[in-house]
Amino acid sequence: MKNTPKRKQRNKPGVVLFTAVAVMLMLSILLTATVSFVSVNRTKTNDNYKSKQAYLTASSTLESFINQIQTDTAPTNDPTAKAQQKKAIDNLKKLASANSGKGTTTNVSYNGSNGKSDNIGTTKITVAQEGTSVANIVVTCETTYLGKTEKVAAHISTQSVTKPAEYTNTIELVGNGGAGYDNLNVIGDMAGINNTTGKVYRFTNNTSIYGSYLMYGSLEVSTQPLIMIKPSLVDEKQGSTVTISENLDVSNEFHINSTMARADGYNYVNIGQKLSTSNHMDVGSSGFDVDLFCCEANIGGNDYTQYGNFYVYKGAGAYNGDATFGAAGQTINGSLYVEGDLNVTKSLKVTGSVYVTGTITGKDKIVCTASNIHEGAVLSKAGRDAKPQIPVSADAYVYYPEDFFMSNDTNVTTISDQYQAFYDGSNTKTFNTFASDWTNVDYTLTELIDLTGTGAKTPVTSRYKLRITSSCTWASDLSFNDYGNGSRILVDVSDSSGDIVIRLQNGLNLGAEWSPVIVVRNRSTIIDTTTGDRKYNCYFVSDSGSAITLNGIDSVTGKSQHSGSSACNYSFKGLKVFDYDTYVRMFDSSVLNNTKGNPGLPQSGFVLNPTSVDVAGSYRPKNSSIIFLFGENTTLNATDQSFFQGSFYSPQAIVNIATSGLGGLVVTDSAGGKMTVQCCAVGVVIANRFGNANTAFYVYTKPSTTSVMQNAKGGKDDSAFGYTLDRYDHY
Predict the structure, then answer these.
(1) What is the Cα Rg of the chain in Å?
(2) Terminal-to-terminal C-alpha distance of the chain
(3) Paired residues of 256 in beta bridges
(4) What are the two backbone dihedrals, phi and then psi, of residue 670, each rounded to the nearest 5 degrees?
(5) Distance CA 440, CA 456 (A)
């Protein structure tokens, strides 16, 4: 609350005390968009405090009004209460937007304890827009008492939708089953967000994650997997972490390293239950500490080497914080904390201190300064030594692709009309429809583009066998002679096209002889001023049918329920999907001037930047406007050097990208370091189950903030509808 020099003291003798300002305004203003009256209990006033009386009347009325708003929009997960929140805020906005934004003014009457109207001045409440947006509202109370007038105001920012979804994981598994990864490489974060106990994930054959990892379940690792803790690609100021809710079992070499020095809030491995090793494990490196937390430890087999602190704290159930160290070579370049008992069967070197709450067996095998070994210690568990929390659950998805396909709520979706048009007969267009129009065949596009990032634009020409300019079905009706052999197909999104929705005909199966190259160009001119994302997007959607029924929001889970979604199966070999602005920078004129053929390797000098900051000499794509929405029981199989630049939202579908992807792609980090990768996808992949094969990389780029994916989930524990009280003013 803003305190101004004119703010009066309320408890001064002789000043009217409003001990109960029972506001009947909110039910009438917010729920019926009308104004009633405020009841005020008062004591007798002193004529010498006219100004103070006017001020107290105005401020108490205003604050009671605001408190009632706060009560009626308190955070809740109850669907009925959320509907009331929405109604309340919508009606408040309606009052504010009246009279061209000047709002609605109403006189307030006050009743005394005897039920009669008391003459303690006249008060007007005005609810109006602040500026040009109804999202910002100012509520003013102005009271005149015996010729003295005082005015106070509250400035409110309304929040009428859930917090937009944040997509921070390059690959995210939503299903309740385990998974195995062979040569999977992720640049960015990875997660398994379904908090079902007993799941097991397996890493084999050089699987690598260059970022954070969060998973619910257990992780089994073998054959030299690596987790490289790097700065977050979402926010370079944040670090990365590894969180495993159950057990970590290392049966072969496993490395968890970091590219940054440890600081509070990152560079740690947090294991919810037991750590077991039977072969070599490295954690951290010199100058780049990584702390490790678990609830039980059994270190055996060959070497265990750590730079950072090792913590074994008690956990739920049978996890008593006990630790056994029996590896052939084991060194902790830091301190060891054990809340239970410590058993050392082979030489253990600790460069810091050893703190054990219980007993130590094999103390003579600890290579550490004797005075630094503390048995029966009390552990502070504060600061760096505090065990990080494992979240009870990740942010849940509320809406599914079926909601985007069928919902009539524009707060949920913008594409249901286009989707349903495929089934009501109003849109029968296919790719072949555009092939029948000569203006879309052998299409040449020349555009001025800033290729260097210096502001200087040069003409760039690219050619396409076919151009798509509106929503349609990708069916199997194209002529192979004309459109096989890697035909380039341009999807041209514009203000006139709006969102382009491309339905993939169920059973679409294109072999390597087709190998289509899809390039999506987005030139819609309506741009989100906050994110810079264009209003319209390109959606590739499953052929899930029109029999889908939306059964409302589940009162327990808070998730949308649906039924009747048709199963779909797709198989592509050599399919490549590019964003136009990346495509024309990635390849030289010899590729861009061809209407057919495999584009091959990116041109020398092209460097892709997936970070959140600009890096000299690299290209940082904007948020992806290419979105793949696959409904329940859909399966995608993409093989033979397929590549996708776009985001998959398929929480109840199977995505198998078993492909070596696009070769020779150079990727940079925020420090300018480079690595050359075989890349399968640039975007995010959210799936019930995910399959991969071959040594291929997946690179993070988040989806457009204007896409329907922003409505799929909200911030954890956020209220659906509410407001922020920015400040009070007294004039």
Answers:
(1) 31
(2) 14
(3) 227, 283
(4) -65, -20
(5) 30
What pLDDT, in 10s, does the model give residues 374-402? 999 999 999 899 999 888 777 778 999 99
Q: What one-character DSSP code corresponds to residue 628?
A: E
Sole residue written with tokens 């598994």: 173
Q: How far is CA 622 from CA 166, 500, 611, in A?
A: 15, 18, 11
Predicted local confidence at residue 137, as pLDDT: 86
Structure-token match 């590894």, residue found: 242
C-beta of residue 60 within 8 angstroms of C-beta of residue 40:
yes
What pLDDT is stored for residue 159 in this prediction?
A: 54
What is the Cα–Cα distance from 177 to 705, expressed in whole angstroms?
30
In sequence order, what DSSP letters do the residues of 150-190 get, joined into one string? EEEEEEEEEE-SPPPP---EEEEE-SSS-EEEESEEEESEE
Is the pLDDT assigned to residue 69 strictly greater than 80?
Answer: no
Q: Please report how many Cα atoms fall inside a 13 Å half-sphere around the Cα of residue 349, on the Cβ side.
A: 11
Amino acid, res. 184: L
Give the pLDDT confidence score for residue 77 in this predicted structure.
53
pLDDT at 696: 83
Residue 413: burial class (beta carbons within 10 Å; 0-12, 13-18, 19+): buried
Q: How many CB atoms lie within 10 A of CB 396?
A: 16
272 close to 295: Cβ distance less than 8 angstroms = yes
- With b for 16 or more beta-carbon neighbours within 10 A and e for fewer, the 260-275 pattern comes to eebeeebbbbbbbbbb
Distances in Å between the Cα of 68 and the Cα atoms of 26, 31, 83, 85, 95 are: 6, 12, 17, 12, 16
pLDDT band per the 50, 70, 90 thresholds, residue 13 = very low
362: alpha, beta or left, given left = phi > 0 and alpha = psi -120 to 50?
left
Distance of alpha carbon 34 from alpha carbon 25, whole angstroms: 8
DSSP state of 109: -
Query: Collapsing DSSP states into helix, strand and coil, what is residue 674?
Result: strand
Query: Is the pLDDT confidence value at 162 over 90?
Result: no
pTM: 0.77
Q: How many residues does the chain have?
A: 731
Give the torsion through C-alpha atoms of 181, 186, 189, 190, to 10 deg: -20
Kindly list the distances between the CA atom of residue 127 and the CA atoms of 108, 137, 687, in Å, as whole numbers in the listed order.
13, 7, 46
Tell me: the pLDDT tens digits for 476-496?
Answer: 999 999 999 999 999 999 999
Bridge partners, residue 81, by sequence? none
Pairing between β-strand 169-173 and β-strand 179-182 as defined by DSSP bridges: unpaired
Token pair belonging to 549 = 């029924």
Q: Provide the residue type at 506 as one letter.
A: N
Residue 681 burial class via C-beta count within 10 angstroms: exposed 0-12, middle 13-18, buried 19 and up: buried
Beta bridge partners of 491: 468, 520
Least confident of 44-58, 366-380, 614-628, 674-688: 44-58
Name residue, tokens 């009870």.
Answer: 392
Give the chain's largest Cα–Cα span.
96
Instruction: Please provide residue 418's backbone torsions phi and psi, each rounded to the nearest 5 degrees.
Output: -65, -40
CA angle 383, 389, 390 (to 5 degrees): 155
**Bridge partners of 310?**
292, 336
Per-residue tokens: 48: 């010498």
The two tokens of residue 89 are 């805020």
